[in-house]
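Design job #97: recover the sequence.
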């Protein structure tokens, strides 16, 4: 990726387009990329969900609901502007909603007055209080007055409703994951996994959250594979203090683990969303699974679509739901670069799901903004020699 981007920079084209350039780049490579971008010749257009990278942009263009809007400033400034805009829209909608209530109440009061006048006029007519011609004229005038009053009231109600509709249309309905996950029953002190470097070993206990960082090629994915594929230890066994020279690895201390690979290759492409999740929880009723999938924003007929027809974000949510809704639920989630190829909203949804999960989490990521949003207990750096070093979390 760095070689390709360097080649583009040397071409010195008038306009250069970069599509998700930081995917699969480690911290050092991302820092080098930032240096290239700050001195880029010509116009640079970047598509990215990397919030740090977006801070180097002079303008932010958003594609939303088929419309493109451009804001002068980096992502954080645009986000602040949007939040203020949305807060104002919500306030305007609340005021408009109150105005509709007021106009409807006034229309009801006006109708009550008209009904009272009609009863009084009918009573006068029945009791012959006045000449027939005069009473008919009064009745005609009352009808004209009532028509004008009703028309004016309806106009005011319609105008208030139109203002409410306009204000409501400016409010974005950002979909959020809201899941009630089963309790994986991970008490504090329960040994979950061993992470072993060439220098020392770390034990994940209880619902701890551990992030593993390091340069590409250091063996982070290999470490996870060795943890997942290694033989689980019995609860009575002690974690070995022996460290194998030159090799980083580890073992699970529980048989209930969920592993999310980078490429989401654990799904049955021909099967539906519902079938994929049911395969992990065969004893859970389909209706209950559908209710849970709806909270994962997988609703209606989408649960019957084959996985190969789903978007990247949908496929990710299916993979995550399959892990989280497994029966029995996993006591540890192991995630390898989970934010790669996810858009900003999907990353937000992942953060919400992980923060709702009550088990242990072990994840590999280069995305510092993503890691900062998780309540991490331990951050480990894996060096190329296989050593694990604890970093400030």
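Job complete. Output follows.
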């Amino acid at each position: 990726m760095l070689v390709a981007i360097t080649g583009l920079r040397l071409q010195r084209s008038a306009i250069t387009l970069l599509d998700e350039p930081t995917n699969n780049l480690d911290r050092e490579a991302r820092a080098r990329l930032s240096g290239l971008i700050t001195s880029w010749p010509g116009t640079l257009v970047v598509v990215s969900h990397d919030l740090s990278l977006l801070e180097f942009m002079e303008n932010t263009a958003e594609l939303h609901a088929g419309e493109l809007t451009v804001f002068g400033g980096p992502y954080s400034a645009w986000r602040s502007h949007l939040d203020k805009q949305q807060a104002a829209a919500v306030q305007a909608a609340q005021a408009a909603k109150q105005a509709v209530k007021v106009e409807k109440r006034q229309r009801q009061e006006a109708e009550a007055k008209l009904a009272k006048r009609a009863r009084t006029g009918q009573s006068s007519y029945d009791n012959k209080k006045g000449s027939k011609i005069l009473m008919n004229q009064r009745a005609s005038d009352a009808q004209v007055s009532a028509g004008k009053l009703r028309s004016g009231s309806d106009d005011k109600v319609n105008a208030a409703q139109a203002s409410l509709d306009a204000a409501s249309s400016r409010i974005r309905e950002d979909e959020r994951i809201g899941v009630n996950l089963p309790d994986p029953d991970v008490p504090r002190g329960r040994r979950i996994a061993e992470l072993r470097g060439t220098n020392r070993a770390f034990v994940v206990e209880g619902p701890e959250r551990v992030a593993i960082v390091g340069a590409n090629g250091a063996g982070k994915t290999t470490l996870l594979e060795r943890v997942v594929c290694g033989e689980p230890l019995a609860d009575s066994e002690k974690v070995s203090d022996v460290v194998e020279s030159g090799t980083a690895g580890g073992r699970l201390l529980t048989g209930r683990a969920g592993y999310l690979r980078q490429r989401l290759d654990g799904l049955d492409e021909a099967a539906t969303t519902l079938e994929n999740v049911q395969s992990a929880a065969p004893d859970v009723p389909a209706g209950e699974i559908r209710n849970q999938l709806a909270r994962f924003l997988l609703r209606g007929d989408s649960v019957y679509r084959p996985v190969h027809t789903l978007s990247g974000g949908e496929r990710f949510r299916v993979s995550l739901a399959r892990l989280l809704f497994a029966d029995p639920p996993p006591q540890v989630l192991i995630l390898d670069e989970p934010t790669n190829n996810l858009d900003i909203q999907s990353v937000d949804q992942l953060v919400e799901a992980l923060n709702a999960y009550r088990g242990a989490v072990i994840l590999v990521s280069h995305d510092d903004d993503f890691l900062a949003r998780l309540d991490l207990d331990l951050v480990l750096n894996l060096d190329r020699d296989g050593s694990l070093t604890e970093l400030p979390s």
